[in-house]
Specification:
Helices cover 83% and strands 0% of the residues. By secondary structure, it is an all-alpha fold.
Length: 210
């Protein structure tokens, strides 16, 4: 059985990974600022679900296949890069059209919770580096002959910690939405978020397999 110190150490590493800047952070901040706290929280839950998927996949050996197979890694990498660039371009378009706060605000508010959740989920699931992260991380914290309960415990810890961090980010940014609701602020957020996601998508597309 995995010891408590190992569980705490695993949780600390997962937290550091969640806090590192990346597409997940950009998606939650932008969705919370533009569409409000609830949509931001939905995106955060989607990201946490994606982390849980990769953690379980790592325990089941699926993530190891993605990490080890050049073809599988490339397929996930290209799909993830295309999705990030797609999100970034959409944000650029929103920045160009965002001069009028009224209609733009209404369009943003009509973004469904499921759409925001799916945005976060796909952002994480289509990131092959998440597979590599958990393939490298999980075995270090599992004892020899680990039971399904041990792997489930680590997967749940990864889910809870990621969820707590990004829900905190969503609530913090959502609380400042009045500031972000101004047309100029909205255009800046969309422009910066679009730039970050397109840059990350291009970087992912041309990155070498670890």
């Amino acid at each position: 059985m995995t010891s408590m110190p190992h569980l705490l150490a695993f949780g600390g590493v997962v937290l550091l990974g969640a806090m590192s800047p990346g597409p997940d952070f950009a998606v939650v901040v932008r969705r919370s600022a533009v569409s409000g706290r609830q949509r931001g929280m939905a995106a955060a839950l989607g990201i946490a679900a994606g982390v849980f998927v990769w953690a379980v996949a790592a325990a089941a050996g699926v993530a190891a296949l993605v990490a080890a197979s050049a073809l599988a890694y490339t397929i996930v990498k290209i799909a993830g890069a295309v999705y990030l660039i797609y999100l970034g371009v959409r944000m650029f378009v929103a920045a160009v059209r965002g001069g009028d706060a009224g209609p733009d605000t209404r369009r943003a508010d009509q973004t469904g919770l499921w759409t925001a959740f799916r945005e976060g989920l796909l952002c994480n699931v289509l990131n092959p580096k998440a597979a590599v992260f958990f393939v490298a991380l999980m075995p270090q914290f599992l004892p020899d002959g680990a039971s399904p309960g041990d792997t489930l415990a680590l997967s749940v810890i990864a889910l809870v910690i990621t969820m707590a961090w990004f829900l905190g980010v969503a609530n913090f940014v959502g609380a400042l939405r009045r500031v972000f609701a101004r047309p100029t602020a909205r255009r800046v957020i969309d422009g910066l978020s679009g730039t970050v996601l397109v840059a990350l998508g291009i970087r992912l597309a041309f990155s070498a397999r670890p």
